[in-house]
Amino acid sequence: MWGHGSQYRKGPDSLKGTQPTAMLRLPCFCCAPACKHNIDHPRARPLKDFRTLQTHYKRKHGIKPYMCRKCGKAFAVKGDWRTHEKNCGKIWYCLCGSDFKHKRSLKDHIKAFGYGHGAFGIDCSQEEDEAASEVEHDGESSI
Q: Of 32, 39, 72, 75, which one has the fewest beta carbons inside 10 Å?
């Protein structure tokens, strides 16, 4: 309701959740006994907040109701499933001839090797941010 007048604005705190920030920032431990985020683990690593703990538990220990229609891989978090299904089966190519299963891997490759490396192919040109990364590493724009 930010755009509908000042009577709806409660300041920056209105954008945050209903829980107090002190509750959100408490380190949290997983309840699964063999998990490295469990408090009884010899080198326990707490998760930063409750939301992260919820997502961790779903991904690592929960049921996985979302299934990719292309490859059959199961996911516990709907956002992970959507992202996977959108990119499942795509291959990302570099100008040098290397191919990658993940767009992030291609971007890391381009960043590591620099000049003479860039995104190539139909799949990469469809992404908006791919053009921005090409300009970033080449230093010139084709517009």
A: 72
Predicted confidence (pLDDT) at residue 101 exceeds the cutoff of 80: yes
Name residue, tokens 């908006």: 128
Query: Of 80, 91, 90, 85, which Cα lies nearest the Cα of 68?
Result: 85
Tokens of 128: 């908006």
- How many CB atoms neighbour CB 12 within 10 A? 7
Cβ neighbours for 63, distance < 8 A, ≥ 6 positions apart: 76
**What pTM value is reported for the model?**
0.56
First to last CA, the chain: 38
3 state SS of 31: coil
Q: What is the pLDDT of residues 2-56, one digit of tens each?
A: 455 555 555 555 555 555 565 556 788 998 888 999 888 888 888 988 888 999 9
Query: Is-contact 94 106, C-beta < 8 A?
Result: yes
Q: How many CA atoms lie within 13 A of 60 on its CB side?
A: 15
Q: How far, in Å, CA of 12 to CA of 140, rounded?
A: 39
